[in-house]
Amino acid sequence: MKKGFVALILHAHLPFVRHPEYEYFLEENWFYEAVVETYIPLLTVLEKLVNDKVPFRITISLSPPLLNMLSDPLLQKRTTRYIEKLIELSEKEIIRTKKEPKFNRLAKIYNEKFKKIYSFLTEKYKLNLINAFKKMQDEGVVELITSAATHGYLPLLSINKKAVKAQVMVGAKEYERFFGKKAHGIWLPECAYEPGLEQFLAEANFSYFFTDTHGILFATPRPKYGVFAPVLTPSKVAAFGRDTEVSKQVWSAKEGYPGDYNYRDFYRDIGFDLDLEYIRPYIHPMDIRIPTGIKYYKITGKTDNKLPYDPDAGIEKAAEHAGNFMFNREKQVEYLYSILKREPIIVAPYDAELFGHWWYEGPIWIEFLFRKTAYEQKTFSFITPGDYLDRFKKLQIATPSMSSWGYKGYHEVWLNGTNDWIYPHLHKAADIMVEMANIYKDTSDPVIVRALNQAARELLLAQSSDWAFIMTTGTDVSYAKRRVKEHILNFLDLTEAVKKNNINLEKLEKIEEKNNIFPEIDFRVYV
C-alpha cells in the first residue's frame, strides 16, 4: 500500500506578446524559446513515457495568454521560421567546429534536436501544440488546468471586485473554448491569494487552487495536517499548499539541482561569443547580441573559465538527482505517514519554463523521476489534485491567509517603488469598464459591442502581473512600461469613442488585429 502522494505541478505561462506591425520583434523570442526549449521537449518526454506504458500523473497549468499564442497563426508561422534559423545555424556550427571534437559533437546534437523539434511541431501536430497537450490529457496522464485571463495579480486588483471576477471568468471560459470542458483547477497568478478570492473561483466552478506554504500554515483555523492535506475554503473550493522542501531542492540557486556544475550553463551562448559577422543573421537585426540557444559550456563553477559541456555527464547527473528526489520523497512520506496517520500529499509546483529553458536537463530529469518512481519504490505515487479530491472527500474547513510565492511571500514584488504607479490607472480603468458595461449591457449596436469588447481586452492585458514583475527585476523595463501605457491609452480611446458615439472603425480594426486575444470575450462580464 502507498503511504502518500506527490503532486508535480508545472505552470506554463508567458505574457501575451504579439507584434504583427513588425517583421521582427525581440520580445517575441520569449515565446519561441519556450516552445523550443520547454514545451516540445516536455511533450516529447511525456509521449515517450506513454509509449513505454510508464504509469505517472502530472498537472500542467496552461495560462490563457499562452493558449492564445500557441493557437495564433502568425506566431505559429514565426515559430517555424525561428526553428529553421536554428537548424541553419547548427549546420554552420557543425562545419565551423569540425576541428574541435567536443564542440562539434554538441553542434551535431543540437542540429538533430532542432530537426526533431521542427518535425514534432510541423508534421506531427501541424503547428498546434495545444492538441499535443490535449492528447496527453486524453491519455489519462496529464491533468490540464488554467489560470486567470492575463495572469493579473488578483489581490492588488481586488479594489474593484468585478476586475477580479473578469480575470477569473475569462480564464475559465478560455479553457473551455480550447478544451471543450470546464477546468477543475486554477493556478492563481503568482500563487497570490487573499481571503475572499475563493468566492469568484466557486462562481466559475473551480474545485481547487494553490497557495504558497504560509498561505495554508497561517490559515484560520490552523490546519491539522499543515500543507500535507488541502483545506476546504468556506466557498467549497479546496486550497493546496506548496511544500518547502521540494521547492528548495529544485528552485534554490545555491542548493537546488539546476546549479550543479555538470549541467549546461544557461548564460554562455554563441550569440555573445562568436564574431559579429558570423552570428549577425541569427541575432537582432540591429546587431544586438541575444541568446541563440546554442551553448557549449557547463556551469563549471563560480568562474569565467567555463569547461566544455559533456551531455553524457549532464544526463547522468539528471538521473542521479531524480533518484535523490525520489529517495527524499520516500523518507518524507514515511515520516509524515507515521506522524499524521494518513497519506500525506506533497505539492511540488514549479514554473514549467524552468525545465528545459533555464535548466536544460530538466525534461530528462522529469522522465527519470517518473520511471524511477514507477519501478524502483513502493512508498508513494504521483497524483493530481483532482485525483486527490476524488479519493479524499472529507477536508478540514479553513480560510488560507494572504500570501504569494514571490520574494518575502507577500505582495512586495508586484507593489513597490518601481511599479506602484500602474495601479491607480488600472483601478480607474476597471471602474470605467464596469460603468460602461452597465450602461451598454443591452446594446444591439455591433460596433459598440466590438469597441467595448476590445476595451475589455486592453484592460485585461494592462493588468498582467508580468509587467509589474519585469519593472521590479529590471530585465526589460522600457517594454513593460510601454505595454501598460499602450493598453491603458487604447482603453481610454475606445471608451471615450463609445461615450461620444464617435468610433473610428479603421482604428478599432487595427487594435483588434494587433491585440487579438480572447476572440469570444463579452464585455458584459463586467456587469
Model description:
- This protein is of the alpha/beta class and 527 residues long.
- Among the domains are: 4-21 and 52-65 and 143-174 and 182-264 and 309-408, Alpha-Beta Barrel (7-stranded beta/alpha barrel); 415-526, Families 57/38 glycoside transferase, middle domain (immunoglobulin/albumin-binding domain-like), CATH 1.20.1430.10.
- 51% of the residues lie in helices and 8% in strands.
- The chain contains 20 helices and ten strands.
- It has helices at 29-51, 64-70, 73-96, 101-124, 129-138, 154-157, 161-179, 197-203, 213-217, 244-251, 270-273, 276-279, 311-340, 362-375, 385-391, 422-440, 446-462, 465-473, 477-499, 505-514, and strands spanning 4-12, 58-62, 142-147, 186-187, 208-211, 231-232, 238-241, 345-351, 380-382, 396-397.
- Strands 1, 2, 3, 4, 8 and 9 form a six-stranded parallel beta sheet that branches. Strands 5-7-6-10 form a four-stranded mixed beta sheet.
- Strand 6 and strand 7 (238-241) form a beta hairpin.
- The mean pLDDT is 97.
List low-pLDDT spans: none
The overall average pLDDT, rounded, is 97
Number of strands: 10
CATH fourth-tier homologous superfamily of the domain at 4-21 and 52-65 and 143-174 and 182-264 and 309-408 = Glycoside hydrolase 38, N terminal domain
By secondary-structure content and strand pairing, the structural class works out as: alpha/beta
- What composes the largest sheet? 6 strands, parallel
CATH domain fold name of the domain at 4-21 and 52-65 and 143-174 and 182-264 and 309-408: 7-stranded beta/alpha barrel
Order of helices and strands: EHEHHHHEHHEHEHEEHHHHEHEHEHHHHH
| Second CATH tier, the architecture of the domain at 4-21 and 52-65 and 143-174 and 182-264 and 309-408 | Alpha-Beta Barrel
- The helix count comes to 20
Radius of gyration: 24 Å
- Could you estimate the helical fraction of the residues in percent? 40-55%
